[in-house]
Amino acid sequence: MPAAIASSTFAVFWLFRLDPLWRRLPAEQQRQGRADLLRVLERRDAGVVLRGAYSLVGLRPDADLLLWVHGSDLDTIQRLAVDLQQSALGAYLTAAYTYVGMVGGGRYDPEHKPSFMKGAQPRNFVSMYPFVKTPDWYLLPYEQRRAMMAEHGQLGRRYTEPRPTSHAAVPGSALPIASGSVATATALPEASPYAGAVLSNTVDAYGLGDYEFVVAFESDDPAALCRMVEELRTVDVRRYTKVDTPIFLGRRREPADVLADL
To answer: Which residues face 69 on adjacent strands?
Structure first.
């Protein structure tokens, strides 16, 4: 079961679609509108951390801008959303998607935490999506679920952890599988050429929206994101995936540069 946590940290992903009318405005009005939204971001409450501003222009047909924030006070985060909406540029932004999550205590591995909670610096690209497991998943014995998640985690670590320099951790080594589990320990391929290239972030979303989790993978190399997600399709726990779309690929830049793309 999830470990107890002393305080809550919320992660919120805002995806905006730009009104085409914005691009027909005079250049000076656009400049002032961008400056107004930037002021809102810069003057936000100190308890709200901007993990990144991402341009989705050319990468998604239904969203142009992603803002990823986190903090301990969801009400303060929500007030920032109101301020953004009421800015000059915000009047031309439609909230296409909103995902709200909370950092959990680690159901299957007490040491498992999102990378942004470990102080890892954000990367240039993010691939984020909502996630729902099938009802059958929750009816399985806990130890069986834990064993399958261990297999999933071992594969993921080939991309999220640096290439080992010793034999302390050998890719493809046997996994502890609970008695009676249908999961089997599969021999994984040799260390990925993308070892250490991906940061992993998963937050709980039960009761906070339409989904159970929000997942965000970060990397400076989008090819690493592609290869890792492909390999994660091959483990037994994949059978219990109900929803893992839409997927949003965004390019992180300074907020001013992201707004210049609009």
So the answer is: 12, 50
DSSP-assigned letter for residue 61: S
Q: Is the pTM of this model over 0.70?
A: yes
What six digits make up the tokens of 154?
A: 């071992």
Question: What one-letter code names the amino acid at 87?
Answer: S
Q: Which of 49, 136, 39 is nearest to 86 (CA)?
A: 39
Q: Which of 30, 17, 71 has its CA nearest to residue 49?
A: 71
Residue 180 has pLDDT above 50, yes or no: no
- Write out pLDDT tens, residues 211-247: 999 999 999 999 999 999 999 999 999 999 999 999 9
b (16+ CB within 10 A) / e for 225-258: bebbbebbeebbbeebeeebeeebbbbbbebeeb
What region, left, alpha or beta, does residue 196 occupy, with left being phi > 0 and alpha being psi -120 to 50 degrees? left
Q: Answer whether residue 261 shows pLDDT above 90.
A: yes
Kindly state the average pLDDT of the residues 182-189: 44
